[in-house]
Amino acid sequence: MPRLFVKRLAALASVLLCAHVAIAQSSLSPTPPMGWNSWNHFFQHVTDADVRASADAMVANGMGDAGYVYVNIDDGWQGTRRPDGTIQSNDRFPDMKALADYVHARGLKLGIYSSPGPKTCAKFEGSYGHEAQDAKTYAAWGIDYLKYDLCSFGDKLTVAGNGDQAAPAAFAAQQEAYRKMHDALVAAGRPIVFSLCQYGMSNVWEWGPEVGGHLWRTTGDISDKYDRMALIGFSQAGLSRYAGPGHWNDPDMLEVGNGGMTLDEYRTHMSLWAILAAPLLAGNDLSHMKPEHLAILENKDVIAIDQDSLGKQGDRVSALGPYELWTKPLSHGRTAIALFNRGELAHTMRVNLRELGVPPGAHIRNVWGNADLPFSDIINPIIPKHGVVLLLVTR
Ligand code: GAL
């Protein structure tokens, strides 16, 4: 075969492969990603053994069957680069490929973490100047999800914007950095969910999809405290129109089970995230969890609300002082209605369901009460301090 012909054929094959991966890439995450991430419990001390134990626990405790599929290693896995620039994992992760095989063998997927900057937030090696190489390494290891965290790229933004990270030139540099990794992932030939993490700067929800993001953090970091979780979660009002199948707002990972909130507060956390069509990435130690926390993470109705195929994010309908009413449209004409009490005392909330478009005779399920409510136009449930009543309404 003439050489030129072979070369052209190879070029065509590579274009077709890229197009195929680009299509596969864009159809990833039709519903918000679900899984687990190491950061909120293990921070940068996470090990291969922790990740394997989490994968095993997800299978054993039913989370895998409930839809939690990604097992995501956050910051702290990176070692040094080889002389040719290839990234290596550190001593706590002796063999990434073997780890991916282990996770895949359990029907789960493996995620990893990096930064567009030279260093990650915990000062490990970032991908700056090595984007294509790192994407290829991730693909070769069998990685399925990448969280890409701005971290030290902030310094590059300051330089690009001449001291102002919000300047147009800095904004362009940021978009370029995220697009570059997206293109590198596509070129590497393995569909990989691309999670942008830059804490909601520059209205990322407006341009996240353009740079290839399947989800983007909309806030700073969550912590295992009611005040912080509530500040982040309730601040999402108004962002619903930016989410949809394949592109999700991400108000950060879950803290359920880490021990810093009451059960009512964790139910509020989970309900609000479901109303927000947020990614559900558990962040606790799955190998040592209390049954009541597992029950919150595995509640079928709340998961169904989050994962609904319509892919619409819910939004706030009203707030009267600390008493908030949120709804989320669901497929087949169903609706989720959440009554939140952000106050410091239990409170009776009066809600007119008719005014929310609930027709007479609709079927009303009280999700956390695990019971059906008799239909009535006006409901007056007592909501505990920092608690929620979550209703799933079927016409
Ligand atoms: C933060 C990020 C956290 C975690 C941490 C790792 O910037 O928001 O979710 O990834 O970096 O260092």
From TrEMBL:
GO terms for molecular function: alpha-galactosidase activity. Residues 321-392 form the Alpha galactosidase C-terminal domain. Keywords: Disulfide bond, Glycosidase, Hydrolase, Signal. Residues 1-24 form the signal peptide. Its EC number is 3.2.1.22. InterPro entries: Aldolase_TIM, GH, Glyco_hydro_27, Glyco_hydro_b, Melibiase_C. It holds the Pfam family Melibiase_C. It is an enzyme of class 3 (hydrolase). It catalyses: Hydrolysis of terminal, non-reducing alpha-D-galactose residues in alpha-D-galactosides, including galactose oligosaccharides, galactomannans and galactolipids. GO terms for biological process: carbohydrate metabolic process. Belongs to the glycosyl hydrolase 27 family. This is Alpha-galactosidase. It comes from Granulicella mallensis.
